[in-house]
């Protein structure tokens, strides 16, 4: 498993009964986690006195209960700054486990010693975009949500990357890639973090099981002659690391490189064990 273990301002303190106790900077949050199927004693003080608690509803969805959480606050990862705020369906605007992937591709970018163009699809609030830009790449950031792109730009400003070569686009990712094929544009690396289900800005429907392989195949057509890496993340049950790896291997066979795939996770401070948080597949140039 690939573990994001370099955080200083974030940690999973404990897990029990379908929830995780987290420290986000100076604030303690309780949020649901479907992976936490064990029921252990909740002895840490944070369980009794969190700053916010997201309660999942048996009817689907849920809602936040706030005690002493501000509307917005910041945390840092190396030289990056992220603005956090609680919003619908338990999220804060950041997936800390993805830092293990940021570290991986940042090293590749820094050691490339040539100008690089990176495409980040389903780019959310910009964690991967900022990491790639900080490492020295020119990044095209694409997400269907105008609000998420605005949030990502605010994170870039907070991280000192306001003038970095980042192209911010509100667009349907599938249609954007199709247009890039027609335009003849090419990228040296691709990052994608597709949701299980979503809608584009014009109502385009995305279902990952039906569309992910086709999108990967399309992305191959916009890679440069010597691509450096291809990263796919998934939080969808059923899309195991082996499945992601198979699709990447199948489509990247024309290039010389290797594919690895693993679960990604975070260390739980109270037990020292690793909480699985999703899956990633990485292709890297040989």
What does this structure look like?
This protein has 286 residues and is α/β, with parallel strands linked by helices. It has two domains: 7-84, Golgi alpha-mannosidase II (Immunoglobulin-like); 97-285, Vaccinia Virus protein VP39 (Rossmann fold, 3-Layer(aba) Sandwich), CATH 3.40.50.150. The chain has six helices and 17 strands. It has an eight-stranded mixed beta sheet, sandwiched between helices. It has a five-stranded mixed beta sheet with strand order 2-3-4-5-6, with no helix packed on it. It has a two-stranded antiparallel sheet with strand order 7-8. It is globular, with a radius of gyration of 19 Å. The two termini are 22 Å apart. 41% of the residues are buried.
Q: Give the overall shape, derived from the CA principal axes.
A: globular
Overall number of structural domains: 2
- Average pLDDT works out at 95
* Helical coverage, percent range: 10-25%
CATH topology of the largest domain: Rossmann fold
- Radius of gyration (CA) equals 19 Å
What's the count of strands? 17
How are the strands of the largest sheet arranged?
A: 1-16-17-15-12-9-10-11
CATH architecture of the largest domain: 3-Layer(aba) Sandwich
Count up the helices: 6
Strand proportion: 25-35%
- The span between the termini is 22 Å
Order of helices and strands: EEEEEEEEHEHEHEHEEEHEHEE
Largest sheet: 8 strands, mixed
- CATH class of the largest domain equals Alpha Beta
CATH superfamily of the largest domain: Vaccinia Virus protein VP39
Poorly predicted runs: none
């Amino acid at each position: 498993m690939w573990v994001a273990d370099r955080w200083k301002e974030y940690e999973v303190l404990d897990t029990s009964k379908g929830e995780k106790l987290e420290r986000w900077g100076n604030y303690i949050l309780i949020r649901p986690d479907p992976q936490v199927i064990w029921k252990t004693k909740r002895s840490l003080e944070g369980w009794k006195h969190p700053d916010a608690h997201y309660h999942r509803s048996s009817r689907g969805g849920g809602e936040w209960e706030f005690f002493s959480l501000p509307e917005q606050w910041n945390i840092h990862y190396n030289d990056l700054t992220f603005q956090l705020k609680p919003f619908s369906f338990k999220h804060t605007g950041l997936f800390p486990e993805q830092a293990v992937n940021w570290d991986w591709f940042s090293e590749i970018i820094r050691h490339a010693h040539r100008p690089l163009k990176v495409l980040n699809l389903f780019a959310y609030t910009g964690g991967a975009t900022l990491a790639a830009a900080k490492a020295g790449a020119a990044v095209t950031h694409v997400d269907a949500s105008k609000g998420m792109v605005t949030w990502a730009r605010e994170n870039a400003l907070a991280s000192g990357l306001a003038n970095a070569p980042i192209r911010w686009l509100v667009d349907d990712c599938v249609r954007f890639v199709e247009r890039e094929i027609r335009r003849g544009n090419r990228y040296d690396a691709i990052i994608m973090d597709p949701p299980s289900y979503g809608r584009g800005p014009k109502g385009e429907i995305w279902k990952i099981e039906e569309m992910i392989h086709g999108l990967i195949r399309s992305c191959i057509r916009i890679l440069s002659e010597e691509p450096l890496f291809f990263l796919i993340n998934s939080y969808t049950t059923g899309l195991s690391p082996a499945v992601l790896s198979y699709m990447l291997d199948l489509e990247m066979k024309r290039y010389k490189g290797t594919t690895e795939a693993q679960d990604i996770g975070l260390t739980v401070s109270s037990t020292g064990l690793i909480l699985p948080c999703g899956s990633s597949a990485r292709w890297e140039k040989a």
